[in-house]
Amino acid sequence: MSMIYDTFIAPPCHDKIEILYQDEHLVLINKPAGLLSLSGKNPQNLDSVHHRLVQIFPGCTLVHRLDFGTSGLMVIARNKAINAALCQQFSQRTVTKVYSALLCGHLDDNEGIIDAAIAKDPALFPLMSICPINGKPARSHYQVIERFYHELEDNKLENNRLLPLTRVQLTPETGRTHQLRIHCQQLGHPIWGCDLYGGRLLPGTEQTPRLMLHASELHFIHPISKEWVKTRNTCPF
């Protein structure tokens, strides 16, 4: 079996975690882009959502994760029983997650479904790959919100200062690692700023400050009250 070496060192994140809601059972937060969800094995990667929140809410645990570059909504369990109940909702796919993203280029269709199995590939770590044979089923819906042009700064190509972008709403039906990022690449329109899956390849996009992916909605049933919690968070880009 191939050994996996993670050499990634996260740069310091000075943005604060915004606590949107809390009770004795769970916490809802807005995660800043550029912050790990969970601390890495490397001591330099200690700072994370969990590391920060466990100082405030001892015993809290992550129910799900967002990629380092992704911002937006996360639900944190304050004890093991709540974690188990929420994890069950995620595994049974009764949780609705909606993301906002900016994709490179203009999509032809206004909406569609990306159905492409995803597999780990130790040789390409940390990249995932589309693999119909060995991959786990993965399915994402997309809906176009708007198509527009973004004027690039310091673009070396004088006659091509406008970057075509499409704002989309992404709804993953499954929850595979890097699912939305690799599915958008598969669509031919990577997420702007995505360093792993082609979102920094177009001229002028190399210095994009962040991954343009934000978890904007999270809907689940509160494990204790049994009421629907429907949270929305404004996209910062």
UniProtKB/TrEMBL annotation:
InterPro entries: PsdUridine_synth_cat_dom_sf, PsdUridine_synth_RluA-like_CS, PsdUridine_synth_RsuA/RluA, RluA_PseudoU_synthase. It holds the Pfam family PseudoU_synth_2. SUPFAM superfamilies: Pseudouridine synthase (SSF55120). Gene3D superfamilies: Pseudouridine synthase (3.30.2350.10). Residues 25-186 form the Pseudouridine synthase RsuA/RluA-like domain. Belongs to the pseudouridine synthase RluA family. PANTHER family: MITOCHONDRIAL RNA PSEUDOURIDINE SYNTHASE (PTHR21600), RNA PSEUDOURIDYLATE SYNTHASE DOMAIN-CONTAINING PROTEIN 1 (PTHR21600:SF87). This is RNA pseudouridylate synthase family protein.
